[in-house]
Every structure is written in structure tokens, then in C-alpha cells.
Amino acid sequence: MNNLKIIGTSHIAKQSIEEIKKAVEEFQPEIIAVELDLQRAAALMQKQKNRVSLSDITKIGVKGYAFVRIGQYIQQKLGKVVGVSPGSEMKTALEIAHAKKLQVALIDQPISITLKNFSKELTWKEKGRFALDIVKGLIFPKKQMKNYGLEEFDLHKVPEQQTIAKIINQMKKHYPSIYKTIIADRDRYMVRQLVKLMRDHPEKKILAVIGAGHQEGMGKLLLKVDVVRWKSS
Q1: Which of 47, 149, 178, 231 has an alpha carbon within 20 to 30 A of 72's alpha carbon?
Q2: Is 97 within 8 Å of 104 (Cβ atoms)?
Q3: Looking at residue 94, what is its pLDDT?
């Protein structure tokens, strides 16, 4: 897969913005694929806040609504700490593609589907554990950060894959349905989109910009696809 390059990013790290710019100059892609769906891409480029109405709640579920609101709040707070707006690296990728007249591919699963699945699959046990973890985090913040592999987390940089793997393993253990709906299901969806792009445009170079938490899982899935394709040729 010499025509595909994947960058794992942090949504609030300036390092990710610089890595994207460097990759575009060095790799010279004809297609830039980003971890966005149409709704999120439009909101990002138009500087809209993702407002969730009552009609949206009926589509994605109360738990999905709560999850996205908590996630947005945390990202905004952390973004202020490091001085980078959440999603700036994805916006940079889109702006570069527009400036250089490159093809853009929005490869992520629609956010409404992700949140609907999240609401449906989140268990009461996980909700209770989540509440307990918040309380523990308030009382023993350093211990909780250590438990989840965050004791050496630098917000200004993209986490090392070893750190990401530790966090994801903890998520699998304590929050299996969150891992499935937020990570694993989307890994498979985005890999299918990338494979389709490669088959439709075998002569073109593709730069894929995805969250660092998806990089390892998607890489393993892509290797399996490549093996199957090699055996059948």
C-alpha cells in the first residue's frame, strides 16, 4: 500500500497541524481523507457549534447526547489550556486540500449513527463505573490518571502509541461498549472507505488524517485486507 499514508493526530495538538503540512509537502497526495463525516466537516468549516435539539435527541438517544456534550466540554477546556481549538488539524487538512485543489474524502461513519449505537449499547454497569471514575478522579486525580495510563500525558503532543494502547486497553476492560461503538466500529467503517478509495483510484496517493486512537486498529485491519488481496492476485 505504497499509495496510502496515515497520520495519527491529536485534535488539540499543534504538533498534528505541523505534521499534516509536512506530510502534504513530502508525500504529495492527490486525495486527502479525513476522520470526519459531512455534518461534522460542514460545522467545522463554518465555525458552527454542534447544537443538539430535542429532535436530534430522539435520533441519537439521551446517552448519545450526554456523551457528545461531555466530550465537547472536555475538548474545549483542554483546547484552551494548549491554545488550539479542537479539530484544528482536520480543518487544516481540509483547507490545504482546498488550496491545492486536491480531492477530499470524508471517511468517518455519520455521527448520528455512532451516537445512536452508543445510546443503544451502553450498559448500566458502564454508566455506574463512569460515575464512580469521575468521583475518584475528583478525589484522587493523580491515582486515576496513573490507572488509565495518563500520568505522563502531554497535551501539546500526539501521545506515543504505547500510551494510546494502554488507554485503549483500559477502555476495552472497563467500557467495552464504548470501545466498540466509538473505536472498533469506526475503525472498520473507515478502513472500508479507504479500501474503496484505493480500489477506485489505484494510481493516486492518499493521505489519511485520523485520530491517533484509531491508527493501530485501522493499520491491523488494512494489513489483513492487503494480505487477502495479495493472495488472490
Answers
A1: 149
A2: yes
A3: 96
